[in-house]
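Supplementary Methods. Inverse-folding protocol.

Structures were first reduced to a discrete structure-token string of length 109. This string, shown here, constituted the complete conditioning input.
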């Protein structure tokens, strides 16, 4: 049986976040959930708590997450940016995933 390491999980998640629209949008909304209420309101990262968006991404990704929640879609141009930025959040996605389901998905692909 193939042993799936944390590195395998990291690469699988990073690849999904960089190429799969469903994964990228769901991750965007999940990471947005981790922002504090004040950060959501200010559209900026103010608390350094190792969850949510980084300071450099806070404003932009918060605005995209709010648009996705409100309108239900992002443009192709916006998705290019989401695909570029979301892979760095792989660890937060891994830490908040059902590990058995993740491994099943990995084995299916």
């Amino acid at each position: 049986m193939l042993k799936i390491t944390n590195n395998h999980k990291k690469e699988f998640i990073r690849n999904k976040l960089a190429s799969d629209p469903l994964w990228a949008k769901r991750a965007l909304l999940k990471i947005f959930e981790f922002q504090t209420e004040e950060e959501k309101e200010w559209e900026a990262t103010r608390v350094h708590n190792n969850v949510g968006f980084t300071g450099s991404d806070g404003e932009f990704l918060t605005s995209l997450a709010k648009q996705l929640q409100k309108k239900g879609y992002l443009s192709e141009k916006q998705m290019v940016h989401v695909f570029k930025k979301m892979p760095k959040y792989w660890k937060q996605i891994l830490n908040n995933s059902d590990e058995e389901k993740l491994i099943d998905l990995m084995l299916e692909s």
